UniProtKB/TrEMBL annotation:
The lineage of its organism: Eukaryota, Metazoa, Chordata, Craniata, Vertebrata. It is found in: Cytoplasm. InterPro entries: FERM_2 (IPR035963), FERM_central (IPR019748), FERM_domain (IPR000299), MyTH4_dom (IPR000857), MyTH4_dom_sf (IPR038185), Unconventional_Myosin_ATPase (IPR051567). Residues 58-211 form the MyTH4 domain. One of its GO terms (molecular function) is actin binding. Coiled coil: none annotated. This is Unconventional myosin-XV. Residues 217-513 form the FERM domain. It comes from the Eukaryota. Keywords: Actin-binding, Cytoplasm, Repeat. Pfam families: FERM_M, MyTH4. Its main location: cytoplasm. The keyword Repeat applies. PANTHER family: MYOSIN VII, XV, MYOSIN XVB.
Length: 513
């Protein structure tokens, strides 16, 4: 008898549970458990059914051999050792003085991580120990571990329908104390099939909270415009779920517009866009030094301003980008006039009773840093003060909307801009700017702001990040693009290489949806 095959490269994509009494854990045990093979002569008899039922229910005694048949003696030994660790965690055996509950969980999860062909064995062991377990504390410990297993590791395609059926039956048993956590396990398993499971094992503080019955963690999302969004995330919450929640609060609940937003993880100077299918806990470190923010990444769907939070978030993001050089502005007389209008709108956006004067310091606050050295500050101040005195001021909300409408007319609005210091193509003067939007990647001259290269994203074949060539040097990105008949390669170096790389990954992911 060979072992039950482990997870293949293409896990089950269906989670439908067959109707009727098929695919129970007793059926699985009869077909695949080691001890069931000794009952072959009693097939179909009441004795066989009783024996199969005993194989898949709680025992006070450690197993002497793996539940599944393994030709490899090491796997058999690891299986029996794991069962003892499971019993210690569930409180059914005493723990050594140097081992606590969290150590037990790590030992089991680490074994799953290292030995993929033991996933089915460990699933079966935990399911066995939560079936007809008379001890409520032990039972809940077992379900807590099953909660973690289903979110991290998939059973094989063979065990999947049986495990799914087990969870479905447990979730609809109103007399049990575990039907709610069984529903959570079902959800975890579906997400695991769709998104691949969490990448990093939980920190001790997360496990301590779970052991105390706290299944959700408080998280503050810093949104543009100073808006703070407080929420609670669970062990296996993915970015898409939280984005849907936030977008609905902002009045941006339509799927097409929702896809324009991303969550971003920031730690110190490292900025990492989070893909929709990624688990938030994989980004949240134990030391709370990671900040999660919201950002609009693409601008295909029209803006609408009936929701106050929506208006504040968009104004806050575009204003910050404008003032910090993330929106390219070419210095010209026309641009000076535009900067003056935008300064006036910012002034009105601050308060319902704006002054009709403007100090030089205030004006500089309203002017992009990239233009402050080249602009005639006195002429700009005169222009803005004249407009403030002769025009009827707008209400703050209307001023913010007009500011956005003005910004959207700028030629490079909607591009995510990156300052690139080195390029492999010597026909491109450096430093330069690279801009990325939903359709293309552009190269912009840093002096003239003329577009020198356009790469449609559909032509981007492959890309990878590059390590710095010297200590303290810049990271880079290698871009492979063009057609099969005319392939091209370009590498660039920039301080935001990882941010740009992951931004491109997210945009390309969304293009495939």
């Amino acid at each position: 008898q060979s072992s039950v095959p482990s997870l293949t490269s293409e896990p089950s994509s269906i989670m439908l549970v067959p109707a009727g009494d098929h695919y129970t854990m007793m059926d699985f045990a009869t077909a695949y458990f080691r001890e069931a093979q000794s009952m072959q002569g009693l097939k179909g008899t009441p004795a066989e059914k009783k024996h199969a039922a005993d194989l898949v229910q709680y025992t006070k005694v450690p197993i002497q051999a793996s539940l599944l048949q393994y030709a490899d003696s090491e796997l058999n030994e690891l299986s029996t050792n794991n069962f003892r660790t499971l019993m210690r965690f569930m409180g059914d055996q005493s723990k050594p003085k140097n081992q606590n509950e969290i150590d037990c969980i790590y030992e089991i999860l680490q074994l799953c991580k290292e030995k993929e062909n033991l996933h089915d064995e460990i699933y079966c062991q935990v399911i066995k120990q939560v079936t007809h377990n008379p001890n409520q504390e032990s039972l809940m410990r077992g379900w807590l571990l099953l909660n973690l297993l289903t979110g991290y590791f998939l059973p094989s395609n063979i065990l999947m329908p049986y495990a799914t059926k087990f969870l479905q039956l447990a979730s609809v048993d109103p007399s049990s104390t575990h039907h709610e956590i069984a529903k959570i396990c079902q959800s975890n398993l579906r997400k695991n099939v769709m998104y691949g499971g969490r990448r990093h094992l939980p920190f001790p503080v997360e496990l301590e909270a779970l052991l105390k019955g706290r299944s959700a963690r408080r998280l503050q999302i810093l949104m543009p415009g100073g808006v703070e969004y407080l929420t609670r995330i669970k062990t296996f919450t993915v970015a898409k779920e939280l984005l849907q929640e936030i977008c609905e609060q902002m009045g941006a609940g339509e799927e097409e517009e929702m896809q324009e937003f991303i969550l971003v993880a920031i730690r110190s100077k490292a900025v990492r866009p989070i893909r929709w299918e990624e688990y938030l806990h994989d980004y949240l470190l134990e030391d709370d030094l990671v900040t999660v923010t919201l950002r609009r990444l693409t601008w295909k769907t029209p803006l609408h301003f009936e929701n106050k939070i929506y208006t504040e978030v968009h104004y806050g993001q575009v204003l910050w980008d404008y003032l910090h050089g993330r929106i390219l502005l070419k210095h010209s007389k026309e641009m000076e006039v535009q900067v003056g209008i935008l300064a006036m709108l910012q002034h009105w956006a601050k308060t319902e009773e704006p002054t009709s004067t403007l100090s030089r310091e205030e004006l500089m606050e309203y002017t992009p840093k990239s233009l402050q050295s080249s602009i005639d500050a006195q002429a700009l101040q005169n222009q803005v003060v004249m407009q403030l005195r002769t025009r009827q001021p707008l209400q703050p909300r209307d001023a913010k909307i007009q500011f956005l409408e003005h910004m959207m007319q700028l030629p490079f609005f909607g591009y995510n801009i990156y300052y690139v210091e080195r390029v492999s193509d010597d026909t491109i003067p450096v430093p330069c700017f690279f801009g990325v939007n939903k359709e293309e990647l552009i190269v912009v001259d840093s002096t003239t702001q003329v577009i020198s290269r356009v790469i449609p994203l559909k032509e981007l074949q492959r890309m990878r990040t590059l390590q710095p060539v010297s200590e303290g040097g810049l990271y880079g990105i290698e871009l492979n693009y063009g057609s099969a008949a005319n392939p091209k390669t370009m590498w660039i170096e920039l301080s935001q290489a990882k941010e740009m790389y992951h931004t491109l990954v997210v945009i390309l992911d969304k293009a495939e949806l």
